[in-house]
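Standup notes
- DV: blocked on the single-chain target, sequence here:
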Amino acid sequence: MGALTTLEPVLRLGAFGAAFAAMAAWEALSPRRRARFAREQRWPHNLGLLAVDVAVIRLLAPGAAIAVALAAEARGWGLLNALALPSWGTVVLAVVALDLAIYFQHIMFHAVPALWRLHRAHHSDLDFDVTTGLRFHPLEILLSTGIKCAAVAALGAPAIAVLIFEALLNATALFNHANARLPERLDRWLRWFVVTPDMHRVHHSIAMSETNSNFGFNLPLWDRLFGTYRAQPAAGHDAMTIGVDAFRSAQDLRLDRLLVQPFRDTPGSYPINLRQETP
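- DV (later): unblocked, structure below
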């Protein structure tokens, strides 16, 4: 299993490249919404932010979650190591439990104003497409990595389960941020099993009541179970406004603006624990 530490970046890069190419082609051939900005105005900056994230993680915490999982297996840490489950059952349960942990982490980044400052770099994109799924501030990525490592240790998640979960998370984040059209009937059926682009797009609405809904990335179960599910935006997908109200100019799409964004202005009234607008 120690070989996973070496293989992890190669496997993740391969899965990412395949998913990104597929989603980019799909949204180019069958777009769901008309884009406000040309790709060349947004993509270099969103992809540039991804490059910064990758460099920061590879420098400060390379393969951290896999390393914690291997340590947990070797030392018997965590809940799953105390249960007598078949190996396949442990893997499935770990993947589902990690997805639940990411759901609650996502809510936390919306609930705490200081964390929302980090997370709003993701929400302040003025269009919604596959590169939006890559647009996270490096400080959020570092904090998220620490939370994920704590969850892996507490669960005693096997290293193979962590690798599967991270590959799924990367692929579904690209899928559910794609500006791609699904037939309405297929979308209604599919969103019982996986978060679809139409389901997640509601979460990127400028309206606070819609931003604070549909927190899931992989499984839609958690939003339905915990009452955060919203089927459609009030204005409809074609007319809804994407982004947050504090950053509405083309200049705010630039990489340098994204990197300093957490230190600009106030969180506004988006955090869940502040007074909300009337739906």
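- Follow-up: Residues 3-263 form one domain.
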